[in-house]
Design goal:
The protein is α/β, with parallel strands linked by helices and 245 residues long. It has a single domain, classed as Rossmann fold, CATH 3.40.50. 27% of the residues lie in helices and 25% in strands. It is built from 6 helices and 8 strands; from the N terminus they run βαββααβαβββααβ. It has an 8-stranded mixed beta sheet with strand order 1-8-2-3-4-5-6-7, with helices on both faces. Helix 1 packs antiparallel against helix 5 and helix 3 crosses helix 4. The longest helix is centred in the C-terminal third of the chain and has 14 residues. It starts with a strand and ends in a 9-residue tail after the last strand. InterPro entries: AB_hydrolase_1, AB_hydrolase_fold. One of its GO terms (molecular function) is hydrolase activity. This is Alpha/beta hydrolase. Keywords: Hydrolase.
């Protein structure tokens, strides 16, 4: 696996709510960035926000794209998926230290990887938000604030089964996107699209529910209020036997 910087975005404000988090998750696009990593704070206390996109390539034949169908299957099966390796290597290359507080969020396959990053305990993940991620048996460590956002008309969330481990640290928000309207004609799994989850995230922001507000307060407490910078990363799967450059 090789990771490289795609673009640096300086002087940005940290996320102030779930809608900001969803808005910063990279959209799945061939050749584009799959991971966005934001750095906040100074040398005494640095915190991070990591955003992970979904499946880019649905071809069953593996290529140099680590966010592909093969990685999707491996991630659901809790194996060492290429997408997971790409995120871990991007975090290391970005300079995330093991003790730095981290918020991780992801859409679809990126949501699975987000929980796996937390479960690995290689980094100090303190909050996780997933949007449209298939159910998995990956246990997020105790004490990690976790928000799971699912659309009841999104079939992708059920692909991994129904064995997600519940805990008192986990909140689940479910919404039927097309409860009062017909799904768009010609769209595959329209309730799974990242844009629809961004709409739901806006509703979460506006919700008066105390537990949802507490999650957002936890998240903003981790990243703080000072400006930071973001780096977009792209992972590239190397052929078997190749050495990263």
């Amino acid at each position: 696996m090789r990771v490289r910087r795609v673009r640096i975005l300086a002087k940005l404000k940290p996320p102030t709510g779930v809608s900001d988090v969803a808005a910063r998750i990279p959209k799945a696009a061939k050749g584009g960035a799959q991971v966005r990593i934001e750095k906040y704070g100074d040398g005494e206390q640095t915190s991070w926000a990591v955003y992970i996109g979904g499946t880019v390539d649905w071809d069953p034949v593996a290529t140099n794209e680590p966010f592909d169908l093969a990685a999707n299957v491996s991630a659901i099966a809790q194996q060492n998926a290429g997408s997971f390796r790409a995120v871990m290597e991007a975090m290391q290359a970005a300079g995330v230290e093991p003790g730095d507080p981290v918020v991780v969020a992801g859409h679809s396959q990126g949501g699975i990887v987000a929980t796996q990053v937390a479960a690995s305990e290689a980094f100090n993940v303190q909050a996780v938000a997933t949007f449209g991620a298939p159910e998995t048996c990956v246990p997020v460590p105790s004490g990690v604030a976790t928000l799971t956002v699912e659309h009841s008309d999104d079939v992708v969330t059920a692909l991994g089964g129904s064995c997600l481990i519940d805990s008192e640290d986990r909140l689940t928000v479910r919404r039927e996107v097309f409860a009062t309207t017909e799904p768009p004609v010609g769209e595959n799994v329209p309730a799974h699209h990242l844009d629809r989850y961004r709409e739901t995230a806006q509703l979460i922001n506006a919700s008066p529910e105390e537990n949802l507000q507490n999650f957002q307060d936890t998240m903003t407490g981790i990243v703080g209020s000072a400006e930071g910078e973001a780096v977009l990363w792209r992972g590239i799967r190397l052929p078997a036997g190749s050495a990263p450059k």
